Amino acid sequence: MSRSKRLVDLVRALKEAAPGALTAKALAERFSVSERTIYRDMSKLIESGIPIEGEAGLGYVLAPGDGPPMPALTWRQAETLWRGARILSLVAKEEGAQTAARSLAALSAVLGDDRVQRLAAEPVLPEPGELKPVPAVLGALERAIAAGRTLRIDYVELDESEMKIEGRPSALTTLGDAVILTLLTEAGPRPLRAERIKRLTVTAANTGR
C-alpha cells in the first residue's frame, strides 16, 4: 500500500473509531507497518491540518465535529479538489481562504510531494490574461446569478462549438481577467469561463420532466 493511500485510510479508520481512540500498535497491525511509520504518518496528517488529537503511546482520536467520513476518491478527483482549493485560497475572503488553505494542506498530504509539485507548476488558470469576457456575455451571466433559479444556457464558444448546459447559477468569481460562472447541475458543480464564450442565450429550464 502506498503512503498516500495509507494516509487516507488512516483518517477513515479514525472516523470509524470516533469518539474512541486507536493506538499506534493497533494501527500498525491493521496496516502491516511499524509503529514508527504510524507515528510519522500521524505527524504528517496533523501538520496538514487534520484535527487529530493524541500522541505516541496513548492513542489517537479524531476531534469531534469534523464532518462526514472522507469519501473514496480517484487520483484525478483528488487533484481536481486540490486545484479548486488552491484557487479559493487565493480569491476567497478571510475565513473561506483559511479553510481553503487547510483543505489544500490536507489534500497535499494525501497526494504526495511528486503530484503536488506537478500541480503547483501549473498556472492557476490556463490561458491567463489574453482573453477578456464579451460585455454582453458578462451581463447575461450576472443576470443569471440574480435570477436565482435553474436555467438553461445555450452558448457558442470561441471555436464555434455549440454547447448547452442546465443548472442553477451559484457564484460568479473573478480571478484576474477570468470570470467564472459556477452552475449547480445534476452531475455536480460545473464552471463556465466567460472569456471563452462568444454569445449565449439564457432561458428558464424545463424542470417538469
From TrEMBL:
Xref: InterPro entries: CBASS_pafABC_assoc_protein (IPR051534), HTH_11 (IPR013196), WH-like_DNA-bd_sf (IPR036388), WH_DNA-bd_sf (IPR036390)
Residues of the Helix-turn-helix type domain: 6-60
Protein name per its UniProtKB record: Helix-turn-helix transcriptional regulator
Organism: Hyphobacterium vulgare
